[in-house]
Design a protein that fits this description.
The chain is α+β, with helices and mostly antiparallel strands. Helix content is 50%, strand content 7%.
């Protein structure tokens, strides 16, 4: 251990320098996380606003070792590729999720990991990087982001969770670059010195599309910090706890950052998949409950007098909204909107947040009848590390004084407690998403590779990325 280093920086560095994680359950889950993330990325290519954002800011002729952007014919440098693929994965809010004191999406790091690994594997053919090695880097990136989220609530001080994407991407880049202990500490220290994103773009009245590209931006920044540190830029190993001027005193209400558990592969093994609906994860079980109610009330909408949604403290604080919803980014983080769509239509897709469906007057009428309450027992189960439930219930009251049976769902499809029954839905979601962009022959080759874990693990990253190029 170096002298005069904040303990957290040292612990993160020691974890990154440990041998690759070979735990079977973690590697299997990483396999599905990559599959799911790339499916989300290709589905996002159907959205013109996403396509516009991922185009290079400056035209540049393709050079040697440029990265491929899956589902397109574009080539980009590793920084632009990290941003573009990160934006694609995150755009529709459909990628995997982690909920704790802080929440976020560990797969937000995959764009950077793929881009840098593709670049390095082409540039140094005598040092091949396999997909198996990439899975190990993914596991560590997930662990860094997720374990820090367990006890450290950045949202409580107004900072966005993408600070942890920046940190995890910096660490993952250093692993791929083969950095030594000093470089790791230098790079990780740089992360905390940055100005950090506010949560304003996730909340009324400022909710907007930046929440769909903030993580790609953070992962790109993490790569850049790793690259300059690898090239010899100095670090600031006491950046966290220095009195008055350190991160904790300036931006974290003088709280000390905590690692709530030993670091291994816990986050990857317990990650949450969004299946089958693209809804903010605190609302997933509320949507499930609404869909269960749909066949019972689809001819009785006008008779509803009150709708009571019972949720966790986090669900009530983060995504309960009244008043106008300005855009899709506003609607897909509104618990009441999501429940209303489930009650009215019995399903939900990413088009549900857009016009013309969003103009359905029945949605706002049902929203006006809603009351959102916290159930402390729901919050307790949400925070219990042995459960990590995401419970919600929906109760309907009618004009004649009657009410429905309350529908309560504790664990959505995609939760680790329902992992086995989720696999077929992950695979189906993946294939359906690919069909929106790629031809059948290409999809067949890609899915065949994913169905052979050993072949996928042994495949070079550059060869894997080549299979995703869309022919012009």
């Amino acid at each position: 251990m170096q002298a005069q280093v904040d303990p957290l920086l040292q612990r993160l560095t020691d974890y990154c320098l440990r041998p690759p994680i070979q735990k079977k359950k973690a590697i299997q889950t990483a396999h599905y996380c990559l599959m799911d993330s790339l499916g989300c990325a290709l589905l996002a290519l159907n959205k013109p606003d996403c396509q516009r954002l991922i185009q290079p800011v400056f035209e540049q002729p393709p050079g040697d070792f440029f990265c491929r952007i899956p589902g397109t014919a574009m080539l980009a440098d590793p920084l632009q590729a990290s941003f573009s693929l990160g934006v694609m994965i995150r755009w529709l809010d459909y990628n995997d999720t982690w909920l704790a004191a802080e929440w976020g999406h560990p797969s937000d790091n995959i764009g950077m990991i793929l881009a840098l690994a593709d670049h390095l594997d082409q540039k140094y053919p005598h040092k091949p990087i396999t997909m198996g090695e990439l899975f190990s880097v993914m596991i560590k990136a997930y662990e860094i982001q997720g374990v820090l989220a367990l006890k450290n609530s950045f949202n409580q001080v107004g900072l966005d969770h993408v600070i942890l994407v920046k940190l995890a991407s910096t660490a993952a880049a250093c692993i791929l670059l083969g950095s030594d202990e000093t470089v790791f500490i230098n790079a990780l220290s740089q992360v905390w010195l940055d100005g950090h994103s506010l949560r304003s773009y996730r909340h009324y009245p400022n909710t907007g599309s930046r929440k769909s590209w903030a993580a790609g931006d953070a992962s790109r920044r993490g790569l850049w910090l790793a690259l300059i540190s690898h090239a010899g830029e100095m670090g600031y190993p006491l950046v966290l706890n220095t009195p008055k001027w350190g991160f904790c005193d300036v931006l974290f209400n003088s709280q000390r950052l905590q690692l709530a558990r030993p670091m291994g592969s816990y986050i990857m093994e317990n990650i949450l998949f969004k299946l089958p609906f693209p809804a903010e994860f605190h609302a997933q079980t509320a949507l499930d409950a609404a869909i269960q109610l749909y066949p019972k009330i689809k001819s009785k909408w006008q008779a509803i007098s009150q709708i009571v949604i019972t949720t966790t403290e986090a669900g009530q604080r983060i995504i309960s909204k009244s008043g106008p919803l300005k855009n899709p980014a506003d609607r897909d983080h509104c618990l009441e909107y999501i429940v209303a769509v489930g009650l009215l239509y019995g399903t939900l897709s990413y088009e549900s947040y857009e016009l013309p469906l969003a103009n359905d007057p029945e949605i706002d009428r049902l929203r006006s009848l809603m009351t959102v309450r916290e159930d402390p027992s729901f919050t307790q189960d949400y925070l219990d590390p042995s459960k990590r439930a995401i419970p919600n219930s929906v109760t309907l009251h009618f004009n004649d004084g009657s009410k429905s049976i309350t529908e309560t769902v504790h664990f959505p499809l995609g939760h680790p407690q329902r992992r086995d029954e989720s696999i077929s839905t992950i695979e189906s979601k993946f294939e359906q998403n690919l069909k929106t962009v790629l031809p059948a022959t290409q999809i067949k080759a890609i899915t065949a590779l994913f169905k052979d874990p050993q072949a996928l693990s042994q495949c070079r990253v550059s060869d894997f990325m080549a299979t995703w190029k869309k022919e012009e």
